[in-house]
Amino acid sequence: MKTRTLVCLCGALAAWPLVEASAQAPALTPRDSALHALNRLAYGPRPGEVDRVAADGVMRWVDRQLSPRKIDDGPLAARERRFKILDYDAGELARVYVDAQRERREQKRAAATDSMTEKPEQAGPLEQRGRRLGAEFQELAVIRAVLSERQLYEVMVDFWANHFNVFFAKGADRFLTPSYIEQTIRPRALGKFADLLIATAESPAMLFYLDNWESVAPGATPPQAMRLRARPLFGPRPMFGRPPLFDPGHDPMRADSLRRQALARVPKGINENYARELLELHTLGVDGGYTQQDVINVARIFTGWSVRRPQQGGDFEFHDWAHDYGEKVVMGVMFPAGRGRDEGVRLLKLLANYPATMHHVSRRLCQRFVNDDPPDGCVDDAVTAWKRSDGDIREVLRAIFRSPDFWAPENVRAKIKTPLEFVVSAARAVGGDPDTTPRLAQVVARLGEPLFLHVAPDGYPEREDAWVNSGALLDRMNAAVALAAGRLPGVAVSLDSIVPATPDAERLIAQANAAVLSGTMSENTKQVIRRQISDISDPLQARALAIGLAIGGPEFQRQ
Amino acid sequence: MTISRRVFVKSGGLALFSLGLDPLFLARAAFAVRPSAGPPDRRMLVCLFQRGAVDGLNMVVPHGDPLYYRERPRIAVPEPDVVDLDGHFGLHPRLAALKPLWENKSLAAIHAIGSPDSTRSHFDAQDYMESGTPGAKATPDGWLNRYCQHDREHQDTPFRAVAFGPQLPRILAGSAPSLAIDDLQAFGLRAPQPAARDRLTRAFEELYAGSATGLLSTSSQEAFEAVQMLKQVSPSQYQPAHGADYPRGRFGKAMMQIAQLIKADVGLQLAFADVTGWDTHVNQGSSDGQLAARLADFGQALAAFAQDLGEKLRDVVVLTMSEFGRTVRENGNSGTDHGHATAMLVMGGPVNGGRMLGRWPGLDPADRFEGRDVAVTTDFRDLFAEVLARHLGAKDLAAIFPGFSPDAARFPGAIKV
């Protein structure tokens, strides 16, 4: 009943979420609450947004963010239409990839016959097209974070993209990742956890990334037709721009030896990689109570979950011949012999609502939204909502945002922004308008977070010690100074409407404070800026320096 | 004894100075306390983490063991290709650049080393190897950082402990100052003129000194101190010595910049870099292929580093590590899955080189860990502790590896005594 009471309270006193807590703790003002919500559920406020949300009622804004479809996002949609990558479906992207590979083989062959010239390898036009599309896709993520009105939704897409991490530069994931984000993650970012889990398990991007696509029952042999295919074409190349491993070239001797190599590479047993990360990272957590034998049995259950070759579009495909039809036991649950693909789905549904999973995933959400070391109270609230709603992510989030811990003053500004959060919030603070070049995403990459390129399956870390270090801080200061001076590549800033240039130092500081830090600038920061601009006669230069220092300074690193 | 020599030298020197004595005399006396090849303050340790679990069996190949060939029909390194070390073990052919270092006794290898914890999770195992407390996740800091905390004898400069990369690794996390540098050349505030740069640097320094709290405060302090010192080094003009040729790419660059800091005499004592791409579940290759390409890059960077340092290698130990090894038997995809023990390399002047260290448990299934992996016969802490104690002169090993009782009798003998 506690929840219902809170719902009523929030409805009645929408501008003031902390009626109960305010009795003990120094409570947040409506403006503080609005800023806090915009820092956590969104990528920071845009100019004037704190006041708008505070006036409208922060809980009303939170509820609206939880139903993103009802929020008009027309301007972003118009911007998205400028991204060619969204016009490609998975099959077309696969073709881009295959074409680029063929081009590479031909280049290699040409280079081999012309062995006198030892020029450095250069990407051909088709490969460059593939790379351009990849870079466009990273930029698209930044653009959405900056421009979308559905801010919480974009935050959750980023959360899941890390929770269910794939590595954009691993072989076929170069063409599978865009559809993974667009078709697997985005439609389910605020749905049921079980649906998202199953979708990721069946996604070619994940099957490829964690090697499950070639995990087969020991002793299983593929049908003849399949064996003769140039299977290794699909082999992993861990970095961008590696040459293909298999080349059925002109030379018959060589072709023969390559065919033998290909046969030798036909998968011959299970691969535990996906099974282990499924348990450790996606669901139960590392202390979730499973054993090595459980990992093996989970891997056996997923034998045969594979993908088509890129030439055929690279879709999900269940390989009957590769599946282990024996009996398995996972964490004491019996999976009887003779079952095929459906036992994998059964296992995923079981895992999705296992208590350890609820706790593990809730904790990660609280780590993202509340504190690097999340208080037990808000994790418990999230787990309760999970149980009640059968793993409805929207309801779990609602519970977190209504948890007293979320609004506790000790958790306000307690988190350090990740590089993505820093760059996007800075662009938003100065009313920045990113262009469609990949350059703003490259800034995020330079600060340490190249998007979709975290090689390990744990995704980018949520803890401050992973992001705060001396080198990274200097990089942030440099980016801030460049942004304020209008020199940060990839984004246009129009400071005139936000902080008009003025020779009046106090006015300038007040406006920079309001625009960039929503009025939270410390006395020390004001003094430093005052001193720094005192001998600058050009108001434009003074403004750039003041805003650069405000964005690069310590207050703006927190959220 | 918790009084650091640094404090002693400072205060004692001051006292003597007031009596008209030369404080330099004291500094010399302090160095003379420890009988070692070079002044201990100049000894340096470079730790390299092969993230993703390197296949120790294909890096340091037990080519004298027929089981190795039986278990790996598709990925074993053929006997004629192996760069033999001692008749039983040999280097992967793409590590051939390291053979001269073995021959001049500045390279040793240890096999069957790993963690007493049996986890096969990359993240847990890396975490344990960096925290130095296998099995205990709550340890807040890394063992290299704890060494810095407990061994205050070394002059603290901003460059005492440097990690090359965009993020400070777990191994250096903790209360002692340490630095993460992605690229020496780009380190610092950027502005068109030196005067503007200095001004901007000062402004940010004041901002952080006055308003930053927690990690933001300590990290920014370290940053600005380092910027000051780097001004004197001019990293963009660096030329490797003795014709050293670092491989292109991240790792080669990191090794070159470590060499540069060592030669610049900025007080570097600990350097860390990581190198990825070892998680070879699929098509790992044998003498050629994926793993071979990674090893070539790795070996060439190490060899170039040794060549570049020349005489200075006398004071340096390079220690490689990886979170665990890989399965003895190749998997169904001509790759290897997560295993247990692996191999590590120790390189440098102080190294008791030209020898295989540790006890080889063999590949017989009965001798394996859980029947599938190379068993651990050396706890990684025994090697790490030896290097800290015998190379850097660390005394308080129990504080650096809590819950572990370091015992010189178990040291694998990597460092000359």
Model description:
The complex is a heterodimer of chains A (559) and B (417). Chain A has a domain of 139 residues. In chain A, 54% of the residues lie in helices and 3% in strands. Chain A has 27 helices and 6 strands. In chain A, the strands form 3 sheets. A two-stranded antiparallel ribbon of chain A has the order 1-2. The longest helix of chain A has 24 residues. Chain A is globular. Chain B is of the alpha/beta class and 417 residues long. Chain B folds into 2 domains: 33 residues, no CATH class; 320 residues, Alkaline Phosphatase, subunit A. Chain B is 34% helix and 12% strand. In chain B, strand 3 and strand 4 form a beta hairpin. In chain B, helix 1 packs antiparallel against helix 2 and helix 8 packs antiparallel against helix 9. The two termini of chain B are 24 Å apart. Classes of the chains: A mainly alpha (559), B alpha/beta (417). The interface between A and B is large, with 61 and 58 residues.
CATH superfamily of the largest domain in chain B: Alkaline Phosphatase, subunit A
Strand order of the biggest β-sheet of chain A: 1-2
Question: Share of helix among residues of chain B?
Answer: 25-40%
Percent of residues in β-strands of chain B: 5-15%
The CATH class assignment of the largest domain in chain B is Alpha Beta
Uncertain parts of chain A: 1-25, 115-120, 230-252
Q: Summarize the biggest pleated sheet of chain A.
A: 2 strands, antiparallel
